[in-house]
Amino acid sequence: MKLIIKNGHVIDPSRGVDEVADLLVENGLISDQLKAGSTADADVFDASGLVVSPGFIDLHVHLREPGEEYKETIASGAKAAAAGGFTSICAMPNTHPVNDNASVTRYIIEKARDAGSARVYPVGAITRESKGAELAEMAEMKAAGAVAVSDDGRPVTNSQVMRHAMEYARDHNLVVVDHCECLDLSARGVMNEGRISTLLGLKGISSTAEESHVARDIMLAELTGARVHIAHISTRGSVALVRAAKAQNIPVTCEVTPHHLALTDAAVVGFDTNTKMNPPLRSDEDRAALIEAARDGTIDAIATDHAPHHSDEKMLEYDRAPFGVTGLETALGVVLTKLHYEHGIPLTRLIGLLTCGPARAFSLPGGTLAPGTPADITIFDPSREWIVDPQRFQSRSRNTPFTAWKLRGTVSATFVGGRKVFP
Amino acid sequence: MAFNSKDLLGIRELTVEDINTFLDTAESFKEVSARAIKKVPTLRGKTVINLFFEPSTRTRTSFEIAAKRLSADAINISASTSSLSKGESLIDTARNLEAMSPDAIVIRHPSPGVPHQLSGLLNASIINGGDGAHEHPTQALLDAFTIRGHKKRIEGLSVAIIGDIMHSRVARSNVHLLTKLGAHVRIAGPRTLIPPHYASIAGDSAGSLVVSNSVDDAIAGADVVMMLRIQRERMSDAYFPSLKEYSIQYGLTLPRLDLAERDCIVMHPGPVNRGVEISSEVVDSNRSLILDQVTNGVAVRMAILFLLVERQTRKPAQGEAQQ
Description:
The complex is a heterodimer.
Chain A: E1 2-12, E2 17-26, E3 29-30, E4 43-46, E5 51-54, E6 56-61, H1 74-83, E7 86-91, H2 102-115, E8 119-124, H3 138-144, E9 148-150, H4 159-171, E10 175-178, H5 183-186, E11 191-192, H6 195-200, E12 204-205, H7 207-224, E13 228-230, H8 236-247, E14 252-256, H9 258-262, H10 284-296, E15 301-302, H11 311-314, H12 331-342, H13 347-354, H14 356-362, E16 377-387, E17 406-416, E18 419-422
Parallel strand pairs in A: 1-4, 1-5, 6-7, 7-8, 8-9, 9-10, 10-13, 11-12, 13-14, 14-15
Antiparallel strand pairs in A: 1-2, 2-3, 5-16, 16-17, 17-18
Helix pairs in contact in A: 1-2, 2-3, 4-7, 7-8, 8-10
Chain B: H1 16-30, E1 47-52, H2 58-69, E2 73-78, H3 86-99, E3 104-109, H4 114-119, E4 125-131, H5 137-151, E5 158-162, H6 169-180, E6 184-188, E7 208-211, H7 215-219, E8 224-227, H8 243-250, H9 254-257, E9 265-267, H10 280-283, H11 290-314, H12 318-322
Parallel strand pairs in B: 1-2, 1-3, 3-4, 5-6, 5-8, 6-7, 8-9
Helix pairs in contact in B: 1-5, 1-11, 2-11, 5-6, 5-11
């Protein structure tokens, strides 16, 4: 089985490739070169005017299965990923039950295999039931296919438990991913603490609530030598902490979401609960610092924190609605529109943040078009305009803050292992 | 005089003209309550629903009396937010109310923004009767009406607002209103109960907003002192050590009031905790306008109901326009 992707603008930051070229896919792998006659019996995909990129990798999604299939399933989430150009997604463990043991990990992997769309890499819990007390069986989960550990959404408050988790994870070469939030400082907060929260009378979550845990984790990473990945950083202070840690060669990586790059807490005026997520949308200064960090390489990955919720749950009082927004199907458009077209960040940098950057952070396969690797490929039109209509999402949920936004950048085709999974 | 929005959601969205329209209209309604027969037929055949998701005696009763003195039918609904299906209750409550064709709905809710969320779903005029710590526009209007009645102006006055600023919708609405009309507002209270960004909320209004370092600084030379109710449960959240210490450090006493202008007036949105945020001597002194505030509340709410419902009557309803 052969496929030739012709005349595309091939951008592969993992190898410094940025040129118009043809790409040959053979037996599900990227082929080393185009040989004379090798294309005779190949399917042809005309990628003229399109960008051909390694498949996007999302380090942070919530697929809700098992337990909350009315919000999303592994299959619907994987389809939404493919529609958004993601060939690999990492599924956070805060399901019901929590992915804190190998049987749940295996269940997720089997469901993802049945779905036959984007690859799904489970992230195991750090502690049993993510309760922050006893360590989960990390090695067993890793053997079953987990790629990292996290108690996302229920951050480990006990610093000694976190230290042990890092020490143990290091033994098993697992990245520890942390949603950094001091729950005492953020208690009952629903949006960024600042002028807007003060105006609206909504309880704020201070930057300090995030930064104090980022600082703690960096210090523990230095102490333990474990690889630590800071999920969805949202503040200027967090950026500064990660930048300083990297300068000291502390093994820390971090990600940022498209919504923190595109929006500020001003979006909360009007009380649309689709502007409610955790960490919350921050100030202009925070957003500017995140954009700068995406540009200068302090940030390793753009991750969506795709967090589907049913509309019944989101149509609540602002302070009672659940945190979270979907992101898989708007990520490319938001990133290109806001970072490339508005802020002039080069495509190679942005594609790096969606491909080899996340692959390195979690030591995942993919994120490259190197010959001999599985043909996970995303082809997109970088300039085509579209209007966000949640009714057209593949995801089961519609909770996006970008409804009716005019974006530039659409996915033309997504290939996983040489097989077309979108459209 | 007319007001051109469907709803009264907050003071922040109002112009100076809007505010003066409400205050001037209230002047003409104040006289109704002084009559032997306290009723005018202005809103006969109109329906006003008081939808209260929080306990309230004062505001609810005030709106009920205001509606009845305008000959409207007033219905009180005390709703609970404690049911498990909160989401359904909010949206479905709105739809159920709409099905009964009310002309105005007064909403009080512990969550900020609920009146705003419902305003887009309902044809009735929504009046914010207090939403969490966000706004309480009718209280601010009656406070301004009371100040204006005694001081004959608001522009240039120094107004001290003292107490639990953080959780106070009354303080927020008053800050917006008073600074829009050119007053100089000083805020004071325990630092634990003043959000760090508070000084920025007034925006570029005609007046000014300052967060004072002490209650004495805020009261010094003030023309108006507004005390806010302190809630007992704040102690358990470690905002301050005890009610006793609170009353000594932050409470309003006659000696402390001597720091203010000699003709300074004292206000409180109620209900008062005597001996905590304000001493009985101050409450019962001739400088206290606390009961005038209650009296004026009826006139101001009559004006609000009149202006919002009358606006709807001025233009044909959607259904009629289609026929």
